[in-house]
């Protein structure tokens, strides 16, 4: 029974750390070197893009989209959402999506490669897009942050510490033989 409880505790700690690693990976910035091919504005509600199959049934908002192709591989195309994060999670406090869209349209008219800073995942089945944080010309200095790697390292160390604590808590207790003899 003790081994079963120990396995449950270790499984819980591992799953918790995997979840935290996914949160870090989702919410911290990533970079992509791309060539912008176009942009679009679509009206959306809580159910996604509004069209004939999905009529509006609540409050709606306009969402900008930026289309691009990979700078090294022309066959690899990507779509990015360009929406303000406002005061919500993740806390980028982004209020300039219209300005970023204007910059993207300017880059679409040229053949320059740009560096897109984004967060999130592109999940086609869930109609989920990466959200653009900023766009810069590839010729400018781009800093590649290490904060996410530092957090991955901290999570890994935390995982090791917690597993060691669990193993120590469930280790069989060895009594001192001298105290046992004195008790007899």
Automatic annotation (TrEMBL):
The chain crosses the membrane at residues 144-163. InterPro entries: Phage_phiNM3_A0EWY4 (IPR011088). Pfam families: DUF1523. The keyword Transmembrane applies. The keyword Membrane applies. Keywords: Membrane, Transmembrane, Transmembrane helix. This is DUF1523 family protein. It comes from Campylobacter concisus. The lineage of its organism: Bacteria, Pseudomonadati, Campylobacterota, Epsilonproteobacteria, Campylobacterales.
